[in-house]
Amino acid sequence: MSLLMRRLGVLGLAGTIAAGAACSDSTTASGNEPAAPAALQACQVTRNSVRIEWARSAAATAYTLERADVQPNFPGTATEVPDTFAVVASLTDNVVSYFRVKASNTDGTSDASSVVAFTAKAAEGVLQGDITCSRTLMKDTAYTIRGYTKVKNGAVLTIPAGTTLKGDAAVAGSSLWILRGSRIQANGTSAEPIVFTSSKAAGTRAPGDWGGIIIVGNGIINRSGTILTEGPAGTNEQYSAGTSNTDNSGTLRYVRIEFAGYDVSGGAGQELNSLSMYAVGSGTTLEYVEALAGLDDSFEWWGGAVDGRYLVSYESGDDHFDWTEGFRGRVQFLIGFQSARLAPAPGRGTISTDPEGFEGDGCAGTGCASGEASTPYSQPVFANYTIVGPGTATALTSGGDNGAVIRRGTTGYFTGGILARWQRSGLSVRDTSTANRVAADSLIIANLMLAENTKNYLENTVDTVTTYATRNHVKEAGAATTILTSLTPGALDFTPIGNAITGGNTVTLPASKLAGFFGGTVTQPAYFGAVDPAGPQWYSGWTLYAVN
Amino acid sequence: MTFRTFDRIMSVVRVLFLTLAPLAPLAPLGAQAEMGRIVGRVITTDGAALGGVVLELVGTALRTESAVDGRYVLAGVPAGAASVRARYIGYLPKLVRGIEVPAGGTATQDIAMQVQVVELEELAVTAEAERGSVARAIEEQRYAPNVVSSITREQISKSPDSDAGQVVQRVSGVTVQDGKYVSVRGLGERYTTTSLNGARIPSPEPEKKIVPLDLFPAALLEGITTSKTFTPDQPGDFSGAQVDLKTREFPARRIANASIGIGLTDGATGTDVIRAPRTGQEWLGFGGSGRDLPLAARQAGDFTGLTQAEVNVVAASFRNSWSARTGAGQPNGSFGVSLGGEDPVFGQRVGYVASFSYGQSQEKRAEEYRAQAEAQGGGRQTPVNAYGGSSGLVSVLWGGMLNFSTRIGAGTKLSLNNTYNRSADNEATVLHGFDEEFDTDLERTRLTFVERSVRSNQLNMEHRFGKRHFLDWSVTSAGVTRDEPDRSDLAYTLANGQPDLWFGAPRSANRTFSTLDESSWNLGANYRLLFGPVTNPASFKVGTAWRSTTRDADSRSYDIINATLAPNERRAVAEQIFDGDYALAGRFYLQPNANAGRYSADETITAGYGQLELPFAGRVQLIAGARVEHWNLDITTLDPFGARTAIPKEKTDVLPALAINIGLSHDQTLRLAATETVSRPEYREVANVQSFDFGGFLLTRGNENLRRALVKNLDARWEWYPRSGEVLSLGVFAKFFKDPIERAIEPLSGQQRITFINGDRANNYGVEAELRRRLDFLGSGGERLTLYSNVTLMQSEITPGNAATVSLTEQHRPMVGQAPYVVNAGLTWLSVDAAWTATLLYNVVGKRVTEAGATPLPDTYDLERHVVDFSLQTPFFLGATMKVDAKNILDTPYRQRQGEVMTLRYRAGRSLGLGFRWGL
Lengths: 548, 920
Fold this sequence. Notes:
The structure holds two protein chains of two kinds.
Chain A: H1 2-26, E1 41-46, E2 49-53, E3 62-68, E4 77-81, E5 85-88, E6 96-105, E7 108-109, E8 116-119, E9 124-131, E10 135-136, E11 142-151, E12 156-159, E13 164-167, E14 175-178, E15 183-187, E16 194-198, E17 213-216, E18 250-258, E19 275-278, E20 285-292, E21 299-302, E22 308-314, E23 321-324, E24 330-337, E25 356-361, E26 381-388, E27 402-407, E28 412-415, E29 417-420, E30 425-429, H2 432-439, E31 443-445, E32 448-451, H3 464-471, E33 474-477, E34 484-486, E35 493-496, H4 511-514, E36 515-517, E37 520-521
Parallel strand pairs in A: 9-11, 10-12, 11-13, 11-14, 12-15, 13-16, 14-17, 15-18, 16-18, 17-19, 18-20, 19-21, 20-22, 21-23, 22-24, 23-25, 24-26, 25-27, 26-28, 26-29, 27-30, 28-31, 29-32, 32-33
Antiparallel strand pairs in A: 1-2, 2-5, 3-4, 3-6, 6-7, 6-8, 34-35, 36-37
Chain B: H1 3-23, E1 35-44, E2 54-57, E3 63-65, E4 71-78, E5 80-87, E6 94-101, E7 106-108, E8 111-113, H2 118-122, H3 127-143, E9 148-152, H4 153-158, H5 164-168, E10 174-177, E11 181-184, E12 192-196, E13 199-200, E14 221-227, E15 241-247, E16 255-265, E17 272-275, H6 295-300, H7 308-315, E18 325-328, E19 332-345, E20 348-377, E21 380-408, E22 412-435, E23 440-465, E24 469-495, E25 498-502, E26 509-531, E27 538-562, H8 567-570, H9 574-577, H10 581-584, E28 588-593, E29 599-616, E30 620-638, E31 644-665, E32 668-679, H11 683-686, E33 690-693, E34 698-701, E35 709-720, E36 727-738, E37 741-748, E38 751-758, E39 761-774, E40 785-799, E41 821-830, E42 837-845, E43 848-851, E44 860-862, E45 865-875, E46 881-887, E47 894-898, E48 901-907, E49 911-919
Parallel strand pairs in B: 1-7, 1-8, 12-15, 34-38
Antiparallel strand pairs in B: 1-4, 2-3, 2-5, 5-6, 9-14, 10-11, 12-13, 14-15, 16-19, 16-49, 17-18, 19-20, 20-21, 20-48, 21-22, 22-23, 23-24, 24-25, 24-26, 26-27, 27-28, 27-29, 29-30, 30-31, 31-32, 32-35, 33-34, 35-36, 36-39, 37-38, 39-40, 40-41, 41-42, 42-45, 43-44, 44-47, 45-46, 46-49, 47-48
């Protein structure tokens, strides 16, 4: 043994010497020069200029920025820089430049940093990995979102109107994440919406081709502890422990999200939603957003208090609108329309067997300190919604096909809605804890028109006649087409007609719940549903109806 | 003791060891006046010389070994009456009393060793033989340089135990979970390693390190040794205990044994029991080709690019077996044969043992209840998703062994050991309950068939060169498989308590195909040198070991989901729905999960060690040494798109050990030990793939960032051997873990996921006591009763940390699997003519954490369970022996509780067995 130990000792010593030798080979003489700069990144400033920035190296007095057209040509153009950033302008379109930095002081010059590349205005752009400094996209570039792509570190991703971004259907989990502290500024227009879609050609697209948009804000949820978003380990993010329901994650305006909802769990049934809003605060702007043919929910809110309006969900893979874990935003003017259950892209996820129009939860799972009574309660306001199911055109699913399932202790205020063509039921206030909220007037479902549902109320919905029909002005219509103009895919017209034109404001909701909404209040117009019979048809022009 | 103090001591050990090692031959060995010596020869009863026999001067640490010609010298023996004990594996130990040693003179004492005949231990149990065998276990414990506990063939044959899992339960401080997974001193099973004749057995369990010991029929075992203290000649991932199963040694003369047994299980045999439909050669533990992954599914891969028509073909390709059947429970049955002998082959005497055993048993989990706990606020919980029902399980276990050994000259022993064991469980479970997510009553049916096999082929050679040099080496090839071909999960809605509609949601018609194949090579060589005076030699041992393991694990599952079936079509029985017509018509969705459980692992451990045993003044023995281990693990996982991820891990550890054994008097020993060991993550724990646990509705994923844990161990133990075969010992131990690996729950949006984390640290303290005593003080007849008991009390606390990824309710709690107490007790009675024996056994394990609770739910505990077994062995006609076993007499339910919610409860049922054995 002693021999063995000594040999090992000698080996260890030899290793140290060898390592030492290797070190001295690679550095200049004195040994006191600064370390190579770290955390180099290239942040776009304008179309043809870039800001190269890096972390300060201890004891460095100056830096040299090197720029080369191809990597082996370093040092290329070298420029001395006094600070830890430099702006390089006048870059040529479609030409890639490589950058690296060395730090220096009177003792010498460090090794070179890692290399970053930047291309000014490429015809094609790929968004992937972490986006850690702010950047502005170009509308005339075709972007691909490849793999889990995350805007973080306080960066702002600005997307001009008319830009198209395609989720790469060939790479696992292609999705765009806006993490806590960062923002997305996606300002489309009715004429030039911003489109997030599948990388597959139109006609071959399917739900689940790519992931979707995931926003993690700093809002408040009612689960405690460390709670992670959906997504595989290492790519999912904590969204619990937020501190401000007025947090701002940016703007989504005139945006379409198509064929999203990829299963991130490798077949275990964890699909991403078209738009996931985790603890998104009310500073965020959300209006004129369409989710088309996603594999999971179209819109889902976990806690937070973001307000929204003019939301459209066509042919959802699961629920059209889903909230849970303390969501307290207000949403007005929503359309949900389903005529078929689209088959997912093979191998990209599971079809839902409990698709609903609304699915609202109070709190469920670990971290719900008081179970379904955990606070803050989920307490959304939904006003002027038109949610139309597929009726009996599709097979009854195992657990779904309800216009609204309100459960697990959620509260909330509902007014001016239409729930039509739901094969199981129009309205299900599912469990005792939720029924108790109705009794306590913290869950008010009022001014609702139920039409062409197999049943208007699920059996276990308590006290339907008194609570809803009489007290809350819940009305029952005949065929859906007696209250809505056209429900034919391709010729959709959600303008209310007949009995849906008046009476949608019979019951007045508490004003305090409606105030401070997009600079005004949540209004209570006379009509039922999402569209004013006097116009405009706010959903037309910028939206798309397609099934593949 | 703080961690720092411990470190300081261990660094002193390192220095001391390196300093002492070269000086050791010069160490003073305290020769004094008034001494004499004992010389003699050790022979077999046939008169042949026997080398390598350990001879001990009783009451001292003085020991030597006989040379190749059988001669020995014990010098430095105090004048007066002396006793010498001789031990050699395969022979009954012998104690020679009353040797008169003259001062300054020599006493001559030859010793004849008797071969330990298998038949002797099994059948004609005389009081003498019984004492001999039990005494041997105690002897082994007494003279081992570390803390060990042994259980012998004798004890095994007296207990009602039928497999190694039940046997090992009788060892001090041992906890057995699920009847097969061993943990020692209440530490989780990850801290116990298992070897067969000294070579590591790979584990067939995907997430575990331990080998299910119920794979080894008790009849094939010579004994089980449990070491609780690390010595450098043992693998460094020893952190709680090493369990070594020894297969039967070769006998000296020809023997043949046959046994047959029948039994019944209360509540199962003869009553209605559910079971899965059979196919293949299930009675041999083979599930058959009918359970293979259908070709269409295999070719479909992850379904990328498939047309709907091709998907339909896959959906139609599954074996059309979904529903459980009901039938009368079968009686249990078993038989075994063994042959042994030692015969000349071309003039060379070759010993051999061949044995085969086969058993089939029926179990039923009656009154089965499962639920999940949900927080209600104010620290209260309520059950959700509560299901009740029953399970039926038919198990087949068979195994064989073929061992050869021979001596070449007097200095070399060569042995070839081969074992193969196979088990299969056919299990059906039907549960009824309320599903909260879907707001509906459901019937869930699971049919599963699990086959496991363990193979080991070992070539072992021991050489002696002269009187001071010993070399042994071994080459072992081992393989394990675990296949769960074609598990089916089915869910129906319930109407008035009867199955109504096929549910059609995800996981309501699921097929899962899992395979795991692992093979390993173990090479090891040890060299031992005796030095210093012949009378009281010190020994120095060096060795090297290399182990290479390769595993391929693959799990694919397919979910059939309703697309267009109307309720009236879903109202049919499952075999009608899934007969292929609907599938081919495209009326289902089929969701594959092709790669989620797929990974491969290559692990290589290269080790070298040195260990010094130094006697001081005849009473004190110092054992010091260190082991260097280089660990290299490469895991490759496949993501759902088929992309490979490689996870490499590498670490070199130097693990010191220091032990001091002090002979307090001729029958008392005090042992002190301080050691450092490691605990490495299991492959599945590192493989960063996600798979769905259908039963628990939880995702499981590995953590590629797991590190190995470092464990510092302190042991102290006082042992008293008042009479042959009797022992009283008291021990204390402490373990300090850095980065302990624990299972944890990651809360996700809408789901939970099990993962594995390195906790910050954990400390573990315990006291253990062992007693074995003949009850002759009770008066006449009392001498025929022997009482034995071992009790371990433990306390542990873990600081899990990792608040950034998991949110645990309790930041300080016992380690998972840690029981506060373990009690084993037994009472044996032997008739005057030693023909009748009766044994009563009792075992209880205190409540222990099975899963750490995620906030705000409390931790889940397995509750304490009292188990009483009884066995009676009597002579029968024509030389046969009859044995009656009653197991699980109290039938205490198995219970798992999370706060106010019972999360699992079932009864296993009492069983009664009757067996006959013939020997030639």
